[in-house]
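User: Could you walk me through two proteins back to back? I'd like the raw sequence and the structure tokens for each, with a short line separating them so I can tell where one ends and the next begins.

Assistant: Of course. Protein one, sequence then structure:
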Amino acid sequence: MPHAPIAAPKLDLAFVRAQFPAFESPAHQGQAFFENAGGSYPCRQVVDRLTRFYLHRKVQPYAPYDVSEVAGAEMDEARARLAALMGVAVDEVSFGPSTSQNTYVLANALRQHLRGQKGRAVVVTDQDHEANSGAWRRLADEGIEVREWKIDPQTGHLDPARLAPLLEDGKVALVAFPHCSNVVAEINPVVEICAMARAAGAWTCVDGVSYAPHGFPDIPALGCDIYLFSAYKTYGPHQGIMVIRRPLGEALPNQGHYFNGGTLYKRFTPAGPDHAQVAASAGMADYIDALFVQHHGVTHATPLERNNAVHALMRGQEVRLLQPLLDYLAGRNDLRLLGPRDAGARAPTVAVALDRPAEPVAAALAGRGIMAGGGDFYAVRPLKAMGVDLDRGVLRMSFVHYTSEAEVKKLIGALDRVL
């Protein structure tokens, strides 16, 4: 029986930053990192596991000799511990080379599943990063109807009321949408959307790439059928991670070697996994556990409860630091802030449209010790839908829980001078 939710204390930032070797690197001294949405710093636990694997385990795993058995056991540990943190069965977690590749494979499986079923449809949004949009849109080549759930062109908001009419006829097989956009950043009501889709007989695919860095998902609470995210944005190695719930995973056709079709976590990974990076992914679970123990001590909390408690820690820190930045940007009349102005309603990924190209502005910020980015960030569809000039792009400043208040103040000061 689950325990009561664990109250969130204030994040121990000194402890957190001690877990990331980047903060000790001479190359990073004097720099404030605000391009975390493109990839986070790896935590020490991941770096240590990856180094250990390459030095001491780099053989073909699962063979009947000691080093190989240990290598396989570390890979299995990563899957098991991440599954426990997210509240799913071990074999419902799959690794792949990237989220874009994982989505492509899943879309191909759905294409095969729907072949010959006339009148079927999928729903996509124009709020998504292209990874969770383009692959599903290509199903139109097979005669599958693609229905677009459109955002509000002024705010970027994805309104569930606009989804309802798309589901009314019961023909939709899958609804693909983001937990939050990588430029709008509003946190979408995943639980509500998944319930709507389920009631209409549709599966759901949630792109969590832009949200998971701010807290690993509680999959049973969300109610989705597929959840996708990228380990290199959640303090880990360059792997795509996908949770595929068993009913859907067994319904879709096998995409792997025919003799692996009976193993759920192998059904949607046609290529062999990167052994070292899979094993190193257990370091992400080590990090979550370390944060929990530091802030709550040793308790009998389940892995999912520990995950949810750390999620609350991360979000508390991020919301506290984000609101001053949003207030500052909202007070300027020379830019357009995309997404909500309330820090509690969004992730700390902040995109602004300027009256000039964004990349030179990012370069000017770099000269003041601010690492940020300019461009479209593969979010061409939402930017076009909101009327943003793609030749200018947007300036994006993104942070996570290890960012300090001093770094946010440094960013605001640099923006004042550059803009």
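----
Protein two, same layout:
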Amino acid sequence: MTLDMNFVRAQFPAFAEPSLQGQAFFENAGGSYTSGFVIDRLERFYRARKVQPYGPYEASRLGGEEMDEARTRMAAILGVERDELSFGPSTTANTYVLAQAFRRFMKPGEAIVVTNQDHEANTGPWRRLAEEGIEIREWKIDPESGHLDPDDLEPLLDEKVRLVCFPHCSNVVGEVNPVTGITAMAHAAGAFVCVDGVSYAPHGFPDVGELGPDIYLFSAYKTFGPHQGVMVIRRGLGEALPNQGHYFNADTLYKRFTPAGPDHAQVAACAGMADYVDALAAHHGISGDAAAKGAGVHDLMRDHESALLQPLLDMLRGRNGVRVLGPEKAEGRAPTVALALQGPGAEAAEKLAAHGIMCGGGDFYANRALEAMGIDPQKGVLRISFTHYTTEAEMQQLMDALDQVL
């Protein structure tokens, strides 16, 4: 089974936008185009439901129902219980709130394992707990490949470790980490697990229940939705951590770690992400419950992306003055390709823009990973990132432009 690209692209108004014609979008790791389903729901909420939700009158009741629908349907796709899913203003903010909960949950002398492969949003808040007497242990990447070796985690685990934090995949290395195996190692040592899924979820929603971590975070604006952070906290941990919300909401799991009032319209619009998954599943003959449809769509996306990615990796391999971060094979990595060049990454991105290629250059908040691999964050990298709605023609446009710019 292959993706019907005409159907896929018809679901994204950006591809019909006159101002974007002739330009190929390769900065999806920073934020994806938005599905028409999401835009329609967001527009409807602002037009017809922009009142305080959960009240007795019609507009309020419908607004609350749409917010509940988003949580119910996305939780089902992710393979978790409805109240184990929370929405927040961003993944960065959600992680910060979680770190404050662990600050009160842990005792001085206990430890957290973090990596230097992470985006700063999933490592900085945990590292700052050292100020509270929490020991921070760093699980280091290989300086050449950027690989995060599970064998290197084993010596860091003992009875003091309460939490292990790592990315599903890095936003500059791109390699997909074996979440299930790493989670099993951490759980065997008595530690909880927090996975940053921001750079993975755009390539297919994972079955978090099957993967097994206690916390899984990603950003809806990178998964074709509105600007919200999506956070799964499994019940056992969520009920054990200190409540960070209003005291009278402490008995509601999905409110315990969202101290700020939710953006009602954007929460409701997240149901549009589930609409999109359902539409893709129906069009491609994928049946079953929400998790089964999500898994089928996930595999469709990943297969399409891998087929487009390998020719790009082959083209870049061995090119003078170009260092490709992460694996050389599409299998096992996301279509996020960071290139360390002789000059600044931002300069290369500017030159590519003249060829209709929209991508970026910089450190991408992965300073620790770049430094570990011997790359100056001030110089940064050129990052090319795409997702399932990218076409073969756009990949050819990219490779032709790279030929000229590099």
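The first strand starts at residue 24 and ends at 25.

Let me know if you want the two compared in more detail.
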